[in-house]
Structure formats: C-alpha cells, structure tokens
Write a structure and sequence with these properties.
With 341 residues, the chain is of the alpha/beta class. It has helices at residues 15-28, 40-45, 80-90, 102-113, 138-159, 174-183, 197-209, 248-260, 280-298, 318-323, 330-337; strands at 2-7, 32-36, 48-51, 95-100, 118-122, 162-167, 187-189, 215-220, 264-268, 304-309, 312-317. The chain has eleven helices and eleven strands.
C-alpha cells in the first residue's frame, strides 16, 4: 500500500519524531510512503516526494517538520476536495496519515466521509484536542514557558515590577495553567474564565501588602476581558475561521499599572514555545503515536486517530477526536488559585 503523510497547522516539537516512527514502522509492514509538502496544500498542488527510512534518519531530535506545514483548508478552495482526490488517485496514494490538530483532523474526517482511507495523529501545542489525554508538543511548550517564568521572577523582583507573560492557548489554557503552576506564577489567566481586572489588581495589591513588591501574571493568548469590554484581537481570520490572536498582555499590563500604580512590563513568548528541539517526553510520545498510526493503516482501521488514554495508546474515531475541545479542568485551576495573590 502506498501511503501519504502530511503535517498541518502550526509547527510543533515532536512532528519529526512522528514522521520517523510512521515510516520506520510502516516499512516493517511493507508500506510505501510519500511525504506531502505543506499540509493539505501539497495535495491540492500535487507537491510531494518519496519518504524512506534513509529520508527520516536523524530527524528525531529536530524541531519543526521536514514536510513543511500550512493552515490550508481544501474545503475553502474552489474545487479543492476534487483536486485532493485527483492527486491521490493520480499518484496511487491509497491512504493518508494526517498529523495535526482539530482543523487538520477535521478536514481528514471530511475526506474519510468521502471515502478516503485516513488515520490521524494528534498534534497541538495547546493540548486542546479531545479524545486524547495529551498531545505531543505540549510538554515542550510548558517546559519552555516554565523556564521563561523562572527567569522573569528575578528581574521582576529586582525592579519591584509586575510582569505579564503571555503564552499560547487560543481556546484552552493548559499551557498557562501548567507553566504558571510550575513556575510559581502569582496570577494565571485562561480563556475558560473571563478576566476580572479588579480581581487581578486585588491579587497584586495583596502581595504588595505582605511585602512582596513584584508579581508574575501568566495569561493565555486567547483569554478575554470579562464582558468583552476591551477588544484586543486582530479580526483577520485564517482559512479555518480563527481570529489571529495577540495583544492581551499589553492590555493587561496597562490596566494593572493603572489600578495598582505598580510599574508593569510584558513578555510575549510567541513562537519560541514551539521552536527548537522537543523534550524527551514529546519525542517518546510522538514515536508511540507514529508507530500506532502505522499499525492502524496495516490493520485498515481507517477513520481513527492515535490517542493517549492513561499510559496506553489507543484508537479513537476522528469524529470523537474533533467533536469537542479539551478544556482546562476547573478543579485543577482551583488548585492553582490557592497560590494567587
């Protein structure tokens, strides 16, 4: 069987580990692989190349993706689905391994419903994909953000400042919550809970009253001011209808300084969180996902995604994987809130 592999959406540490594992395991099953360049765009443009064991050698520790990626949605292009099907047929590609998050796998689900043999691997730094306990790339992002928060503590304390650290997280605040807890943040703000500016200021002032003249505030990029009073987003949309985010840290810093009188600065980690080498955990998790995805193809269990449940890798339907978002557990947030202020 000839199988296409593609990576879609934002790049993510561990992608190359998955690609390597799919090819290595798949070749043991007698499968032949084609690498699709730049996600679904490559199938639209008939842009691909032969993937072999030698081609994936030495990529385990590398960040990014050797296949390239994009946020292309073929269902938003005129005749897009038909062009994808034509590419698959013309090149005798009998199955597709799609590595991505809710958008990439949502497209995979649509093609599966059209008869394409598809399996998925869960990839999203935000860890917001349902059907799996954790996605690869998340641990790397949390590790990087935690190190940044550790470093911000010393400079904030030296200057008696508040520092607002903005991390990734469009719909879910997993990175903010985990890195904030691990880094000892004084306030953690997530998309699941609207921001009460007065409450944030009260936490900061409570610390000052106890002689703690600095504070670290960690905020997810998708967090919103309560009641939508402040517009902080660029309204430009991508092909999946998502608003391009950015700016919440600057709004927060200005409001905190106005309400507390304490000098406030911002740090936006941005793409630093998903660049560079993956952690050991993400390399191992990505490898396990890749091996399982190749086994799904061998067993012709199409329409499924590799998922982590507890410590086991299992198959779940693409429908289940893309049905809902995996949001922060309120009980875990309440644990973090014990240390606010």
């Amino acid at each position: 069987m000839k199988v296409a592999i593609l990576t879609g959406g934002g790049d993510c540490p561990g992608l190359n580990a998955v690609i390597r594992a799919v090819v290595r395991r798949g070749e043991q099953h007698g499968l032949e692989f084609t690498g699709v360049r730049d996600g679904w765009r490559g199938l639209l443009a008939n842009d691909h190349f032969r993937l072999t064991r030698d081609a994936v050698s030495g990529i385990l520790h590398l960040g990014g993706t050797i296949l390239g990626t994009s946020r292309t949605n073929p269902f938003k292009s005129e005749g897009g689905p038909e062009r994808v099907l034509e590419t698959l047929e013309r090149n005798h590609l009998q199955a597709v391994v799609a590595i991505g998050g809710e958008d990439t796998l949502g497209v995979a689900k649509k093609f599966f419903d059209m008869g394409v043999k598809v399996v998925g691997c869960p990839k999203t730094i935000d860890n917001d994909l349902s059907g799996t306990d954790y996605t690869f790339g998340f641990d790397t992002a949390v590790t990087i953000a935690t190190e940044a928060i550790d470093r911000l503590h010393t400079t904030a304390e030296a200057h008696s400042r508040v520092i607002v650290c903005e991390v990734m997280g469009r719909h879910a605040g997993h990175i903010a919550l985990h890195s904030g807890m691990a880094g000892g943040a004084d306030v953690i703000l997530i998309p699941e809970r609207p921001i009460d500016l007065d409450e944030v200021a009260a936490h900061v002032l409570a610390r000052q009253a106890r002689g703690r003249r600095f504070s670290i505030v960690v905020v997810a990029e998708g967090a919103q001011i309560q009641r939508g009073k402040d517009e902080v987003q660029d309204r430009e949309l991508d092909q999946f209808g998502h608003v391009r985010l950015g700016g919440i840290a600057n709004v927060l810093a200005a409001e905190i300084e106005k309400r507390t009188g304490i000098e406030t600065r911002t740090t936006v980690l941005g793409h630093i969180q998903r660049g560079g080498s993956p952690t050991a955990r993400d390399r191992v998790l990505g490898t396990r996902y890749g091996v399982f995805a190749a086994d799904l193809v061998r067993d012709r269990r199409f329409g499924q995604m590799a998922a982590l449940r507890g410590d086991a890798i299992v198959g779940v339907s693409l429908e289940e994987a893309t049905r809902d978002l995996h949001l922060v557990d309120p009980a875990l947030y309440d644990v973090a809130a014990v240390f606010f202020g």
